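Run log, item B.
One chain of 319 residues. Sequence copied directly from the ordering sheet:
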Amino acid sequence: MTVQTDTERAASLNGGVMTGMALMLAGVLIAPLIDIFSKLATAHLSSTAVAFVRFVLQSSFMLPFMLWRGSWREIRLSQAGFHAIRGGVLALSMISFVTTLRHMEVADAIAIFFVEPMILTILSSIFLGETIGWRRYTACGVGFLGALLIIQPSFGEVGPVALLPVVTAFCVAIFAIMTRLRAHREDPWAMQFQTGIWGGLFCALALLVLDPQGTADIANLPGNMSAIGLLFGVSLAATTSGILSVYAYRHAPASTLAPLQYFEIVSATVLGWYVFGKFPDALKWLGIAIIIASGLYILWRERKIMSLLPPTGEPTPNP
């Protein structure tokens, strides 16, 4: 039996963290492709139809992994209501964001969406009882001011649609809180699969009741190869990005990986410029910089507080 020295063990841990960071970076750089393909697909289908097909295809892509891992054994009927709510919230977030992409540039929409960590911080204080100090509340306020620098000119260009990324951010924050409540008790693959199924069902209901045009779009989909190709691109990019993120969290702690998510704005800007020929102006760049700085401060503050957490489970110092 080989015994690792402290130096070898530290090198192994550092190597694992670097692997996790590389996987997360790849995932966030790929993630804007989801939005690029979704924006292109809205030329052929309604926003609800795009969201519905994405849920269906993603669930289909995950099914073989479910069967291979045996994760289907973890599905419990008693938790159906909980996952139905998660699926409904995520469906609303997707429909809102795809609707945004129909009218706004990808980089602008993603930048506004990144108020989500600030919303999550505030909601965690309200619903999870997490202690949030004045510094993080101040950072949240500054981040929202940064979002306004992007929303204000966008509102003048596209109207109330510019507020939909904030709706998406609220929905994703609620989704994240619900995920935290069950993540330590349920298989993550089973959770994601159930979310996809319920999300698809809610989108189907929205199509039938609220979006007859979207229903017609899907009925005509078999003859529209361009739309099919774009929808497969959406789902493949989403599945690939999601899997890379799952494996990234196996190698490195969430607090280490979280700041890398802001590289998604960079990737979205480059891809948006390449595909659509659009580039944020100086005011929007200022808003983006403020949002990123506020989010990074919140993450840094959370890491500092966690480092002060007593190992005995005593109360955390006031942040």
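Observations after the first pass:
- Residues 225-251 form the longest helix (27 residues).
- Residues 150 and 285 are 8 Å apart (CA to CA).
Flagged for discussion on Thursday.
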